[in-house]
Amino acid sequence: MNPRKIELPREIHTGPGVIKNTGIICKDLRFKGKVMVVTGYKTFKIAAKDVINSLKAEDFETEYMKVKEASMESVMMVKENLDDISLVLGVGGGKVIDVAKMAATLAGLSFISVPTAASHDGIASPRASIRDGERGSVSMKATSPIGVIADTDIIIKAPFRLLASGCADIVSNYTAILDWKLAHRLLNERYSESAAALSLMTAKMIIKSADAIKEGLERSARLVVKSLISSGIAISIAGSSRPASGSEHKFSHALDNIAPKPALHGEQCGVGTIMMMHLHGGDWRFIKDALKKMHAPTTAYELGIEPEYIIEALTKAHTIRKERYTILGDRGLTRDAAEKLAKKTEVI
Ligand SMILES: NC(=O)C1=CN([C@@H]2O[C@H](COP(=O)(O)OP(=O)(O)OC[C@H]3O[C@@H](n4cnc5c(N)ncnc54)[C@H](O)[C@@H]3O)[C@@H](O)[C@H]2O)C=CC1
Ligand SMILES: O=C(CO)COP(=O)(O)O
Ligand SMILES: [Zn+2]
Fold first, then answer.
1. Which of 93, 96, 249, 340 has the fewest Cβ atoms within 10 angstroms?
2. Is there a domain that residue 5 lies in?
3. What's the number of domains the chain is made of?
4. Residue 16 belongs to what domain range?
């Protein structure tokens, strides 16, 4: 087997108020000079300001940029401003973190992830989902964050919908692992028992703690953040998003390309997991009940997406990242089969 390198975050700081230690954390990681803070329009006030003040208090020179879309244009716009920068921080939701992560990767710089919401498992992963023209938002290889600073006071104040979305993104590991096992059996695709075990254990744990996930509870934020980080570490161990992305993610990526107003990434993946679990002959009701307990969407209506788009995304899902074999096979679902599946699982 070829030698492999597993890149993991060196330091993970979680808890209420940790964002105020950003400057000290960067200093302890031996960084100095100029730092670039990449953030969003909303998350600048919510968190980036505190990050910048904390960096300045430790004598870091700081610059900041606000980005909106997780596009290659945004990435290149940031990258062009990194010439005299020694470290990049991403402070925001998944899109902001991915842009910062990819810009740092292209510039050969270290990256620190400062999530302001626990909405997806890209917080600690070595992947970035960047839209590039026709290419959808399937994740690309990127640098693993050298550090994660997850302030649970900020995260728990984010709309609860974002926390529920993060839970759903973890639940989606169930069908991602079933697809991975299938590809290993059918095509002898490389399969990592340890990455799969970590990914599945993380999903099982979040479902077991579903009742503890409540709006406004800092403990809930800590629980979901730890699970998202653990899911991201499984991706690092596998060297791909396989442990957390299978047919349910193909459905979500297809929906991103088709629906006029897509829902949150995790929300779409959760609904995809219900349907793909049925295709696998598994207990889709177990998935549906778990998502309901976490207040994540389980139907097209709750996603705010018309049934027609759900059916169309199901028929297109197999065309996303074709090299990744899943229960959808190479030919995917016919329209009738898609409609039947969505109805049988009460999604439409
Ligand atoms: N790189 C990876 O491994 C992964 C990347 N992703 C990517 O992440 C993106 C999804 O991330 P999301 O966070 O769901 O969407 P997002 O980045 O669009 O954020 C959703 C909304 O929440 C807002 N927000 C963030 N923190 C907030 C706070 N504390 N208070 C109020 N509003 C806040 C943002 O401003 C935005 O309007 C997708 O592009 C997806 O492809 C998803 C999973 C894995
Ligand atoms: O969303 C992800 C894991 O939750 C990444 O998956 P993709 O590689 O399919 O973009
Ligand atoms: Zn995901």
1. 340
2. no
3. 2
4. 11-155
Question: Residue length, the chain?
Answer: 348
**What is the distance between the alpha carbons of residues 129 and 167, in angstroms, rounded to a whole number?**
19
Q: Which two tokens stand for residue 292?
A: 């309901």
Q: What is the DSSP letter of 227?
A: H
How many Å lie between the centroid of ligand 2 and the Cα of residue 56? 34
Read off the pLDDT band of 131 (50, 70, 90).
confident
- Name 149's bridge partners: 13
Write out the H or E segment, with its range, that includes residue 293: helix 284-293
pTM of the model: 0.97
- Tell me the per-residue pLDDT of 74-101, one tens digit each, with 9 for 90 and over: 999 999 999 999 999 999 999 999 999 9
Q: Which of 324, 322, 329 is nearest to 280 (CA)?
A: 329
- Residue 1 structure tokens: 């087997």
Looking at ligand 1, which atom is closest to the CA of residue 115? Answer: 26
Instruction: Give residue ranges with CB within 6 A of ligand 2.
Output: 121, 127, 129, 138-139, 169, 241, 244-245, 249
* The two structure tokens encoding residue 311: 């059916």
> Whole-angstrom Cα distance, residue 332 to residue 327?
8
Q: Which two tokens stand for residue 63?
A: 């610059």
Ligand 2 atom at minimal distance to the Cα of residue 252: 9
d(C-alpha 76, C-alpha 67), whole Å:
11
Residue 125 assigned as binding residue: yes
Q: How far is the CA of 169 from the centre of ligand 2 (A)?
A: 9
Tell me: is residue 97 an annotated ligand-binding position: yes
The rounded Cα 99 to chain-centroid distance in angstroms is 13
Question: For strand 61-66 and strand 34-39, is the pairing parallel, antiparallel, or unpaired?
Answer: parallel
Q: Are residues 118 and 170 in the same domain?
A: no
Q: Nearest bound ligand to CA 122?
A: 1
Residue 95 is assigned to a ligand binding site: yes
Same domain, 200 and 141: no
Instruction: For residue 139, give the ligand 2 atom closest to its CA.
Output: 10
Q: Which residue shows structure tokens 């800092």?
A: 218
Confirm whether the ipTM is greater than 0.95: yes
